[in-house]
Amino acid sequence: MNPTKRREIFERLRRANPEPRTELEYTTPFELLIAVLLSAQATDVSVNKATRKLYPVANTPEKIYALGVDGLIPYIQTIGLYRTKAKNTIETCRILIEQHDSQVPESREELEALPGVGRKTANVVLNTAFGHPTIAVDTHIFRVSNRTGIAPGKDVDEVERKLLKFVAPEFRLDAHHWLILHGRYTCIARKPQCWNCVIADLCEFKQKTPLPQKGV
């Protein structure tokens, strides 16, 4: 895909959604960190249902740590892998209290040192909580990047590297949200809604499927 076409794609996504936001509900960097940690292999909807019950009771490292694993599980047991996530959350809270003065660190290395926090989670926190121009590649962004031709790659790391290389600096802060929302609601996995897509004429997916010849 040439740079002009790629730029036009992000211009259109920006016009359609000038101020994109995560669909996870949070009010502090810590709430966002826990929500993203819980969201692995789960939907934002399911995470929000859980945190709406949890955060009014416990929304700081000290308060969640005080719950312990057994006390936290009832709040998050509707989310997949909840036992592992409960253990990681409690251990994360302990580390934040003991090593970071109960604050969420603003460095990738320190974030990725927290239990259950990988590169994608760190990227989301750095981008959404702290305004870093990172791009977290999840299944939606991986699909959209490959299907459209914006940044094709064989794995999430390659797609991330290409996005950071090809996406113009002015778009990088919001690119994660534009792409994930586009993949979640328009460029869906099984039947992409090309008829309802603002970048359909720029997308290289349609070009790979030639229209049938007349009379065929």
Please name the defining characteristics of this protein.
disordered C terminus; elongated; 0% strand; mainly alpha; 216 residues
Topology:
Elements: H1 3-16, H2 29-38, H3 44-54, H4 61-76, H5 82-99, H6 108-112, H7 119-128, H8 139-148, H9 156-166, H10 169-185
Short description:
Helix content is 56%, strand content 0%. By secondary structure, the chain is an all-alpha fold. α1 crosses α10 (169-185).
Describe this protein's structure.
It is a single chain. With 216 residues, the chain is mainly α. The chain is built from 10 helices and no strands. The chain has helices at 3-16, 29-38, 44-54, 61-76, 82-99, 108-112, 119-128, 139-148, 156-166, 169-185. Helix 1 packs across helix 10 and helix 8 (139-148) crosses helix 10. It is elongated and about 55 Å long.
